[in-house]
């Protein structure tokens, strides 16, 4: 299965040995498991940079140095420079998706010659369809690595030019092979004033091939960037010489037409998710949508690395609205937004334009979710646009295939939701680690540790004092307590036994003090101190009755005897 997504970051390590080779650790996405290492020399960087000159961008590749290039300080400085160079490339949305950069960073997965593979597939197809003939390959006019284009003609109509597009399957292909081929072959029957008609379409178990008329004016992106349709994608769009948006009336008309076709597809239950300026063809003042086959093939969206960051953009309908916001921004300002969400919008031809942009690209919109296409059509920017087309839309999808589309759409959305969930969890973990490791947080932890240490010292001191006091109290209580010292006279019995002849014998075992719980069950005894129940003692004193004492009989032999 082909890889998708943007190569997010690289980490250049110190050279492995004295051959001036640099180890680059590459990671795609958030999973550390999806990472690998490559070894590159400076000459490899230089070759890549020369190939990227087609973009017209000034990329910060460190200059060559012939003398002193083995010094440790120079190597460390060169390492920083190359890291910065890769950071610039991989944060550029177009460069990070181009074949040159992916082959440089991921040679194992992008080593094949896809133009040759496409030509082989096309040649096999032409064996059964001899009326078509390839004029020339249209090299690199698109951004996809595994989608190739060829200029075609019909043998009996040599002046008429057509474009053949070939693409293999993507990671979101969930249709069965039979349903997939049936739906691809159904595309030429789709008639809509704002959909660019497919002349011919066929598919096998691994790829699809479609033929359309060649449009001399090119795409909406070509109009915005003043570019030639046949030029390579990198040359046309990476560094436009003149940045200028469209006129307000063009923005209103094109926007209304695109929204109408999106609503048509949504109502039909046909997933799209691939709206951007290069997928819109211009014919006079009419926009026509391209590449309906992309969702059937399971190809990743041009803006997937953007909307996968926002958990509320989790359906293909909301993806289309989000992508429409990008397209509207590009039509208005002549360039894509620097980042999304957009905090503030530059001055626009109308506040109605800004209102639509805020509803699709602002922080609030990305956080709370996208409006529906029907809601956008009711906004002032588009509600007063009159459409003059008389062509009746027509696209009949059998019930069985509609059900297959519904299931495939749910699978595509489920994978998107899971990816968004993983990104959200990764962000939370990263923020927590960053916060925990910040200088301010370290200071807070030190202060809390000191406070805790002081509090523990105070508590230990108090506990030691309490233990010392309790030990003294225990010693005193043991000497004075009548219940714990049998040699001590019982205070209440001294008054009652004062009339008896001294010395009285000790009280018999049958006359202990009654327990407090039996004599006064409703009274709450005082808390025991040092293990002695003071409540029981007080209760015995209060309930003492002299009459309960037994009379003692004595035989006094102390009187002198006279013999």
TrEMBL record:
Q: Name one GO cellular component term.
A: plasma membrane
Q: Does the keyword Cell membrane apply?
A: yes
User: Locations of Low complexity compositional bias?
Assistant: 469-499
PX domain span: 1-112
Sorted alphabetically, which InterPro entries does this protein's record hold?
A: Kinase-like_dom_sf, MONaKA_PX, Prot_kinase_dom, PX_dom, PX_dom_sf, SortingNexin/PXDomain-PKLike, WH2_dom
Principal place of residence: membrane
Q: Which GO terms describe its molecular function?
A: actin binding; ATP binding; phosphatidylinositol binding; protein kinase activity
Q: Which PROSITE patterns match?
A: PROTEIN_KINASE_DOM (PS50011), PX (PS50195), WH2 (PS51082)
**Localization:** Cell membrane; Cytoplasm
Q: Pro residues compositional bias: what residue ranges?
A: 500-515
Topological category with respect to the lipid bilayer: Peripheral membrane protein
Report residue spans for region: Disordered: 423-531
- Keywords associated with the record: Actin-binding, Cell membrane, Cytoplasm, Membrane
Where does the record place the Protein kinase domain?
A: 74-467
Q: Where is the WH2 domain?
A: 533-552
| Regions of compositional bias (Basic residues) in chain numbering | 423-434, 443-455
Where, if anywhere, are coiled coils annotated?
A: none
Pfam families (UniProt xref): PX (PF00787), WH2 (PF02205)
Functional summary from the UniProt entry: Binds to and modulates brain Na,K-ATPase subunits ATP1B1 and ATP1B3 and may thereby participate in the regulation of electrical excitability and synaptic transmission. May not display kinase activity.
Similarity section: Belongs to the protein kinase superfamily.
Q: What is this protein called?
A: PX domain-containing protein kinase-like protein
Which species does this protein come from? Sus scrofa (Pig)
Task: Name the gene.
Answer: PXK
């Amino acid at each position: 299965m082909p890889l998708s997504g943007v190569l997010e970051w690289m980490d250049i390590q110190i050279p492995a040995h004295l051959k001036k080779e640099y180890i680059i650790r590459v990671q795609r996405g958030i999973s550390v498991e999806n990472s690998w290492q490559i070894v590159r020399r400076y000459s490899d960087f230089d070759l890549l940079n020369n190939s990227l000159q087609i973009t017209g961008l000034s990329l910060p590749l460190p200059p060559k140095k012939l003398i002193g290039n083995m010094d440790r300080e120079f190597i460390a400085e060169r390492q920083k420079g190359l890291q910065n160079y890769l950071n610039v490339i991989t944060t550029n949305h177009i460069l990070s998706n181009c074949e040159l950069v992916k082959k440089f960073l991921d040679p194992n997965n992008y080593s094949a010659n896809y133009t040759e593979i496409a030509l082989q597939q096309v040649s096999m197809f032409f064996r059964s369809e001899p009326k078509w003939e390839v004029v020339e390959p249209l090299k690199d006019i698109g951004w996809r690595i595994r989608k190739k284009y060829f200029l075609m003609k019909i043998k009996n109509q040599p002046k008429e030019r057509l474009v053949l597009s070939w693409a293999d399957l993507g990671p979101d292909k969930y249709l069965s092979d039979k349903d997939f081929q049936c739906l691809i072959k159904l595309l030429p029957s789709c008639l809509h004033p704002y959909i660019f008609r497919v002349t011919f379409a066929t598919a096998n178990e691994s790829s699809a091939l479609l033929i359309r008329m060649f449009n001399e004016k090119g795409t909406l992106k070509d109009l915005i960037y003043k570019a030639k349709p046949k030029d390579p994608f990198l040359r046309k769009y990476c560094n436009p010489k003149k940045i200028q948006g469209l006129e307000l009336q063009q923005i209103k008309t094109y926007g209304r037409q695109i929204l109408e076709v999106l609503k048509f597809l949504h109502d039909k239950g046909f997933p799209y998710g691939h709206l951007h300026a290069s997928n819109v063809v211009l014919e006079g003042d009419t926009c026509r949508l391209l590449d309906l086959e992309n969702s059937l093939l399971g190809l990743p969206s041009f803006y997937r690395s953007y909307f996968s960051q926002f958990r509320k953009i989790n359906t293909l309908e909301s993806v289309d609205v989000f992508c429409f916001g990008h397209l509207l921004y590009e039509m208005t300002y002549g360039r894509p937004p620097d980042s999304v969400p957009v905090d503030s919008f530059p001055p626009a031809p109308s506040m109605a334009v800004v209102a639509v942009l805020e509803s699709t690209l602002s922080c609030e919109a990305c956080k709370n979710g996208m409006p529906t296409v029907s809601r956008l059509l009711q906004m002032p920017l588009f509600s007063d646009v009159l459409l003059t087309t008389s062509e009746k839309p027509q696209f009949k999808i059998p019930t069985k295939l509609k059900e297959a589309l519904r299931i495939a759409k749910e699978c595509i959305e489920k994978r998107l939701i899971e990816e968004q969930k993983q990104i959200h969890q990764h962000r939370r973990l990263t923020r927590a680690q960053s916060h925990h490791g910040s200088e301010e947080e370290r200071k807070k932890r030190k202060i809390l540790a000191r406070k805790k240490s002081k509090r523990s010292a105070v508590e230990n001191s108090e506990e030691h004092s309490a233990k010392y006091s309790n030990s003294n109290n225990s010693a005193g209580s043991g000497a004075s307590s009548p219940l714990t010292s049998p040699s001590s006279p019982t205070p209440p019995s001294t008054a009652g036994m004062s009339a008896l002849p001294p010395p009285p014998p000790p009280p018999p075992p049958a006359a202990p003090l009654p327990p407090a719980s039996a004599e006064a069950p409703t009274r709450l005894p005082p808390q025991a101190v040092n293990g002695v129940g003071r409540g029981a003692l007080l209760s015995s004193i209060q309930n003492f009755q002299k009459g309960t004492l037994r009379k003692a009989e004595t035989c006094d032999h102390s009187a002198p005897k006279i013999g």
